[in-house]
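Blinded run. Sample ID left blank on purpose so nobody reads anything into the name before looking at the predicted structure. Input follows.
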Amino acid sequence: MSGQRILMGVVGRPHGVRGLVHVHSYAAVPADLASYGTLHDDRGGGWTLTWRGQGIGELRGTDGQVLRDREAAQALVNRKLYVERDRLPEPEPDEFYLADLIGLAVHENGAVIGNVLAVHDYGAGSSLEIGEGSRSLVLPFTRACVPEVDMAGGRVVIVRPEEIEVRPDEDDVGEAAE
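Blinded prediction complete.
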């Protein structure tokens, strides 16, 4: 798993006029984000984080870049911060990183229906994107929808909620219109 990156934080809005930013940490203990050393962003840059207050940090680029004003800080808003997987502690036997779910086989009613393509989190909780042939399905990552995660077996079991609307295939729409 060397080389795999784990999303550990996101740069938020600027704080003040001297280049400080709000940082949303995904670490179990949010303050630990700074202890991982160099954080890599989604554009290839490297940053070190020094906390200056509750959720407020100073970012310094490994290339010598220092955020000196609000405009420089504003340019980093929504920048994702990653840590190399091998720098993180191994999860407990019954735990996993969300990134570990990508690629697992998805079982529904005893049959394999696809694989986990991605894990999304837009702030209201994580969801799994599941590939089903040429289509994909997005389900909330809750115990009700994903009652079993078997990392050793390389699979997750899903139960679709009744509220999910299944759209007919394009061919079915054409036939219904005739």
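Unblinding after everyone has recorded impressions. The CA atoms of residues 60 and 66 lie 5 Å apart.
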